[in-house]
Specification:
Layout: E1 4-5, H1 32-67, H2 74-97, E2 106-110, H3 116-142, H4 150-172, E3 175-177, H5 181-204, H6 207-223, E4 234-239, E5 242-247, H7 251-285, H8 309-332, H9 339-369, H10 380-409, H11 415-442, H12 451-466, H13 474-491, H14 494-518, H15 523-526, H16 529-534, H17 536-567
Antiparallel strand pairs: 1-2, 2-3, 4-5
């Protein structure tokens, strides 16, 4: 599998097929190559300025909605974002049907870009975002008598935008486009800016959450035996400059839409972040020409051989974490949540996070002891991986520091508060140590496995595929496979063995730490301590800023750790 692939059969080095970039500011350059490089920089500059202006305009609208809801309403922000979505849709359709179909448009494909796990994430989060928009449409349709038509139009356009963008990223995330460079860069930057604004709106807009929480609180009061409100299942709807009283005609359907909306809300923010990362790599690859002499002859493949303790410990962490998560969800959704489940939840993290930190520190030390040289070749995907790991870690680190301040300022000697404090401190340390380990591993040059190991493994596979195994031979074949596994494991050097064990253990740990907050375990918001300290709206913004970044960090760490595992 090569780092770069050319679609045509002929070699892409043929200069007659290369469309050199031109820009009017650099038309007097002495050489074609110099003019091409200057034009590429100018195109990146102007497309970047376009994205900056769009982001600032959208941020101004969203900020005005937050601080002056009379002049700028949520409907105005939705209208602006709908216009941006429509423009992005037109550009994506033009790219699919026009730009990418031109002769020699895609001479190169970056095999580092658009890994299967990140494209799968686009599909997963995109599907959940579509369901989120469906729930929002259904909820607004039920309350159509007191909600504006924009509340139905905006998610409808959102569904079309998500489907088109997911298809575009799945099929074209590896493209190194060689035609219409500036128009392609501007289209990609406009799409990135639109996704960033959608993420910013999701982080800061707590209107529907406040509405749903007030309704759920009223329902809980009814179950608790208190006097019910004169308007069952009511909500205040902000329509323009007026505030009207909404009454849900069907409580059951409204609760289904509300629960679904709350559950799927984090996936929408994740979808925006993942799309921005993929689109940015595509933007960097516009006009890029990949030379074949930088391509290594072989690319290591994922093999489970050579690891024993990592999968065992990791699987144990996943199983225990799944049990803790189910207990937490059962208690958190009950009318009277037990504080004991928060103690169990924090205790699980307090045991797991130090193990992960110790593993990352040991792995970093082994990297330092190894004599592998650093890979200094230009690689936009790897550079972005490093930036995303560092940036996404700021979400959990930021939330942890806010939580530490609130806990220390209130009552750190309380059992639950002391556990939460330990959890926050350990989380910061674990993020830092894991980042150092993964980034160091990503910059190490790949060392292919020993020839003897590969030859024997290939011989075993050929032997298994050439002859049919009967029922009587099944036990013997299993025994041979086990002996082959033990042979490969024993022939690995101790450094490579420990690195693979640590990487696999951290992969499984990050998977369970991704699953738990993604599917509803949010103790930082649900225990109420930080929320009462900072206030609902402030803590809502902090959590909605940090939580999606934290989930994205866990997901991105899995990809980086798998890369470290494969290259060990």
């Amino acid at each position: 599998c090569h780092h770069c692939k050319s679609r045509p059969a002929s070699a892409p080095a043929d200069t007659s097929k290369i469309h050199y970039e031109k820009f009017w500011l650099y038309r007097h350059c002495s050489s074609v190559q110099q003019r091409d490089r200057q034009a590429q920089k100018a195109g990146q500059l102007f497309s970047g300025l376009l994205a900056v202006n769009v982001v600032f305009l959208g941020s101004a609208f969203i900020s005005s909605m937050i601080f002056n809801k009379v002049a700028i309403t949520l409907a105005d922000v939705w209208i602006l974002l709908s216009i941006l979505k429509v423009l992005c849709l037109f550009w994506i359709i033009y790219y699919l049907l026009g730009i990418s179909q031109q002769p020699h448009a895609v001479l190169y494909r970056d095999s580092h870009a658009g890994a299967i796990w990140i494209r799968g994430s686009v599909l997963l989060f995109g599907s959940c975002s579509i369901l989120l928009n469906v729930f929002q449409i259904g909820y607004s349709t039920i309350l159509i008598h007191c909600k504006s038509r924009v509340e139905i139009l905006f998610p409808s356009i959102g569904i079309l935008f998500i489907c088109t963008q997911a298809y575009f990223l799945w099929h074209h995330s590896k493209d190194c486009i060689q035609v219409q460079h500036n128009f392609t860069r501007c289209g990609l930057m406009l799409t990135i800016a639109t996704n960033l604004l959608l993420w910013l709106l999701a982080v800061t807009n707590d209107t529907l959450h406040m509405e749903i929480e007030s309704q759920l609180r009223e329902v809980e009061q009814r179950f608790a035996g208190k006097a019910p409100s004169s308007h069952p299942h009511w909500c205040w709807a902000d329509t323009g400059n007026e505030t009207t009283l909404c009454t849900c005609p069907n409580m059951t359907i409204c609760e289904v839409f509300q629960k679904g909306y709350i559950l799927l809300y984090p996936f929408n923010t994740e979808y925006c972040l993942v799309c921005c990362s993929v689109l940015y790599v595509m933007w960097k690859n516009v006009g890029r020409r990949i030379s074949h002499h930088h391509t290594p002859p072989t690319k290591p493949k994922f093999k489970l051989q050579g690891v024993v303790f990592g999968p065992l410990l990791g699987t144990s962490a996943v199983i225990i974490g799944a049990c803790v998560f189910m207990m937490y969800q059962i208690q958190a959704t009950s009318l009277v949540p037990s504080p004991q489940v928060l103690v169990i939840y924090y205790s699980y993290y307090i045991v797991l996070l130090p193990l992960m930190s110790v593993g990352a520190v040991i792995g970093t030390i082994i990297h330092a002891l190894e004599k592998k040289e650093l890979d200094t070749l230009k690689n936009p995907t790897r550079s972005l991986d490093v930036v995303l790991l560092m940036g996404a870690a700021l979400g959990q680190i930021g939330m942890s520091y806010f939580s530490i301040v609130a806990l220390v300022a209130t009552d750190p000697r309380d059992l639950l508060n002391s556990l939460a404090l330990s959890y926050s401190v350990l989380l910061i340390f674990q993020n830092i140590t894991q980042n150092v380990f993964v980034i160091d591993g990503l910059h190490r040059q790949r060392t292919p496995p020993g020839k003897e190991e590969d030859t024997k493994a290939e011989q075993n596979r050929e032997a298994y595929s050439q002859r049919r195994v009967s029922v009587l031979e099944l036990g013997q074949e299993i025994r041979k496979a086990s002996l082959s596994y033990i042979h490969v494991y024993s022939h690995l050097s101790w450094k490579r063995r420990v690195l693979r064990e640590i990487s696999f253990f951290l992969v499984l740990c990050n998977i369970i730490l991704w699953i738990m907050p993604t599917f509803g375990a949010h103790p930082l918001f649900e225990n109420g301590m930080e929320r009462s300290f900072y206030g609902y709206s402030t803590w809502f913004v902090i959590v909605n800023f940090g939580l999606p970044l934290g989930v994205f960090y866990r997901m991105h760490s899995v990809g980086g750790l798998l890369e470290v595992y494969v290259t060990a």
